[in-house]
Amino acid sequence: MIDSFRDAFRLPDLKRRFLFVLAALFVYRLGAHIPTPGIDPEAMAQLFEKGGVLGFFDLFAGGALRRFSIFALGVVPYINSSIVMQLLVVVVPTLEKMQKDGEEGRKKIVQYTRYGTVLFALIQAVGMTVWLGNLGIFAGGFLDAVVVTVTVTAGSLAVMWLGEIMSDHGIGNGISLLIFAGIVARIPEAIIQTFSLVRMGEMNVLVLLLAVLLMVGVIAGCVLLQEGQRKLPVQYAKRVVGNRVYGGQSTFIPLRVNTAGVIPIIFASSVLLFPYTLAGFFPGSVAKAIQNAFAPSSPIYMILYVGLIVFFAYFYTAVVFNPEEVANNMKKYGGFILGIRPGKPTSDYIEKVMSRITLGGSLALALVAVIPTFMSGLMNINTFYFGGTSVLIVVGVALDTVHQIEGQLLMRHYDGILKRRNKTGGLLNL
């Protein structure tokens, strides 16, 4: 990993992309510290000292919600809009046709996703403002509430824009990198607070060691999930073209155990955050019951969380992986799986295998996400949100970014070889 980053900084293009990502992250972290007008920051800090669901909310905002800054909503509205749009593409024939129309159709879907982000951001901004008003943290009038709502909504749209330009001009997925930066930025503060509690005797050293061991185990599990593959052996028949013989070699199709990566975790968490936000519109016992039901430590939340992770793992895998296309490409180049006929039988077999490993991968993903949250409640760790969700996101985004860097380095390495051959009168001149 370190070698990949060092080699990337030696190439001007990749170095420029890195610096662009760092500059965008700096802007994001700067916005996370700019307070929203009319909000009492000390009252917000006291509210978050209680921990619980608020720390889970703050996970996706990168600490911005704790301060209720202009980026308080973070990337949650954009994620919610993306989920709804991807579901509509499967259900609505017009959107499905639009997606298959090529680049122009995909641009329209992206534009609709942006419109949805505005709607979700506005709903959540109003909900947060009403919620703070019920708690007594925000005591302004109607115009002050409008200013807060517009400010937070505009901040969410700015975060969406930052994520998109990072994806276009940087390295990796911009939205995932923003979530990654928000989680990593809180680690030093959490470590200092934890050791302060240990030094004052408010936290047992053995509990801290157990938490560290659990974290190491979760990280190892995350790496295994992200890198695990099922290799399907493929044999290519020999073909004679002129005086040359092609094919005849054996290879394999790498089917990832966790094809969707951290997407199921992010999507499931975002979906379950939305009812809690809507409940903030309404005072009374019913709204309070809804908020208690969707707290991360509640059994209802745990069951829904696991179910949504499994659902989004299958859904995203179906979107990005097409067994029929893989089978057709194998048939086109004379490849086949031993014991399986080419064409539709091969497609059905690949789909069957993919379905099985996706089930195992999604359940393992849910287990890694839920167990640390349950254990942190037993160990009473409130200095930071200690859960598998944050670790999965950090590990998954880091591995995905490193793989993209290695892909860019490999591509430029081959480009360099081809250019040298061209200059020396090599194969390109034949």
TrEMBL record:
Keyword presence, Oxidoreductase: no
Keyword ATP-binding found: no
SUPFAM superfamilies recorded: Preprotein translocase SecY subunit
Gene3D superfamilies: SecY subunit domain
UniProt topology in membrane: Multi-pass membrane protein
Transmembrane stretches, start-end: 69-92, 112-131, 137-163, 175-198, 204-225, 262-282, 302-322, 357-378, 384-402
Any one cellular-component term (Gene Ontology): plasma membrane
Main location: membrane
Location in the cell: Cell inner membrane; Cell membrane; Membrane
Signal peptide feature range: none
GO BP terms in the entry: intracellular protein transmembrane transport; protein targeting; protein transport by the Sec complex
InterPro entries: SecY, SecY/SEC61-alpha, SecY_CS, SecY_dom_sf
Alphabetic keyword roster: Cell membrane, Membrane, Protein transport, Translocation, Transmembrane, Transmembrane helix, Transport
PANTHER family to which the protein is assigned, alphabetical: SECY/SEC61-ALPHA FAMILY MEMBER
Function: The central subunit of the protein translocation channel SecYEG. Consists of two halves formed by TMs 1-5 and 6-10. These two domains form a lateral gate at the front which open onto the bilayer between TMs 2 and 7, and are clamped together by SecE at the back. The channel is closed by both a pore ring composed of hydrophobic SecY resides and a short helix (helix 2A) on the extracellular side of the membrane which forms a plug. The plug probably moves laterally to allow the channel to open. The ring and the pore may move independently.
Subunit structure and binding partners: Component of the Sec protein translocase complex. Heterotrimer consisting of SecY, SecE and SecG subunits. The heterotrimers can form oligomers, although 1 heterotrimer is thought to be able to translocate proteins. Interacts with the ribosome. Interacts with SecDF, and other proteins may be involved. Interacts with SecA.
Family assignment from sequence similarity: Belongs to the SecY/SEC61-alpha family.
Protein name, per record: Protein translocase subunit SecY
Gene: secY
